[in-house]
């Protein structure tokens, strides 16, 4: 059995600076799983367990034992008895805790009325500082996909190709597979059997490109030098050029263009990797959700096609960068989360915590009132209508009045 931390360790951080229940399930990372009130994921050679309350973030780490290290053929390293647990340093880097999120929210709220309206219900959303390789492969899987299926694919990759770290409460945890593990000739066919579809080809080809055609460490050379990988405190040192030139200063644009050369990587995937895997805060991934936001809230002209050209992608990104500044991708993630159906309820009923109980208590009663209006009014409509009410009372009364008005209009 792996060595488990004796007790939970506390990292002081409030919910406005970090909310893991939102950050870990809003489409950034796809391998965190929740067990009751505890989040778990294999990360950087250990199994991380997280939970949170109003006072702080609590963590503990399970490291692989000697048997697991031996079975991994050198991929893993065990934590010796005298070694220092660096999990706190890892978490500070992984969640970008050096950044003052409250100050950023204040800035975006001053500059953007739409952000100011929605942000109070979505505080504590931070961009994760992920491993670039994992972000690359997971966002290749995101093409024409949803969060649930992407998570299933990421889990299958770990189970079939990643080294086993250990087991907690009967659940086995594997680390994310290396490029070498996914570059084997048999990988594409196997991934198709596992349900990856056309993405299987992109994953295999990208892994082969990194292993056979790119210099060692090429992907990390695209990283923002001011954003070291999690667990590393020093800025990224450039050991190799990104291209054939002797020197190449990394930039967001350089990283974006280089990523576009990989199989299965379009503008949106490139920006997801640049933002969440390489630390470029100005990267703004544009997908259907972000395009809906741009059209609905920022006066972009609606187009009939669901496929975005690179020109449209760049225009939307440039607009948000000019509005929100060097961390535009962070601000975009807040509005992106607000636009997801799974989070849409957080935008309703914003009266405050003190009224939450009364809203829940009135739910059944007010559904009954609406049904009575439709059944006992002067006109009985043929169209049967069911309404799930999860908003405040004054809003729901408006719905009832609107229904009655429509009925009168039909009679007239």
UniProtKB/TrEMBL annotation:
| Coiled-coil segments on the chain, per record | none
Alphabetically ordered keywords of this record: DNA damage, DNA repair, Glycosidase, Hydrolase, Lyase, Multifunctional enzyme
Q: Which SUPFAM superfamilies match?
A: DNA-glycosylase, TATA-box binding protein-like
Report if keyword Repeat is assigned: no
Can you state which reaction this protein catalyses? 2'-deoxyribonucleotide-(2'-deoxyribose 5'-phosphate)-2'-deoxyribonucleotide-DNA = a 3'-end 2'-deoxyribonucleotide-(2,3-dehydro-2,3-deoxyribose 5'-phosphate)-DNA + a 5'-end 5'-phospho-2'-deoxyribonucleoside-DNA + H(+)
* Cited InterPro entries: DNA_glycosylase (IPR011257), HhH-GPD_domain (IPR003265), HhH_base_excis_C (IPR023170), OGG_N (IPR012904), Oxidative_DNA_repair_enzyme (IPR052054)
Family assignment from sequence similarity:
Belongs to the type-1 OGG1 family.
Query: What is the name listed in the Swiss-Prot or TrEMBL entry for this protein?
Result: DNA-(apurinic or apyrimidinic site) lyase
